[in-house]
Amino acid sequence: MIKGMTINDATHKWVSEFNAIPQSMIERLMRAAPDEWEELTLPRAGSRVHVFDLPDSCDTLEHLGEIVAYAADLDKYRVDLDGGPSILVEPDNLEVVDEALLPMWGTMWSFGDSCDDYWLEYADGVQVMSDCGFRVYQHEEWGFFFGIDGAGYDFYSEHWIPPYKRRGLQWHDPAAEKAEEMRNKGYRIAKLGGRNVWVDKNGNFVEEAVAECATCRWRKCHQKCTCCRRNGSLKDCYEEV
Question: For residue 45, what pLDDT band results from cuts at 50, 70 and 90?
């Protein structure tokens, strides 16, 4: 854990350690030796799939559809067939259909830490990355590469933060993350009976605050923040920054 670091900060730090690779380079290498590459991306909600064998009760001959959910208790995917019914399909009875060889975004990455590669290869990393909108590839010599199948929106909230959480990383400071969540809701810290509390825009009590004193120094201000001050009406311990 790093004091004062939110999940967003920690995710940026994690991603900054990755190796960024131009997709054009990966594409040239794939076309030069296609047999050395394998796509590992697993089905997820939103994936376009081809269903091999339709149920006998199915009243359509259409084999293409889209996964809308995964029923973990049944170990089956719910697939809405194009122009047809919604059916339950076993994992080995479908394959993901991707028209493009590589993801939409023009940069791909590989992990900079062997622990992440181990998670990808031996734990649930491929499923997590697939669920979070990545396409994952493996080269028989150079290892794993992944890219984002999307563009034009906030990658951190949609793609990077979810695998940071599901990976189980704990680089962030829970107190700092809690404070960030409260500020994003429009709450602020105030004094109530000598205690630091969160209040809404009208000054109504929300909940008691966990002190962030050790996490800010002092959030780029010249003096202690309102959380740290002994007297909320005074500038305490003024320093040049």
Answer: confident
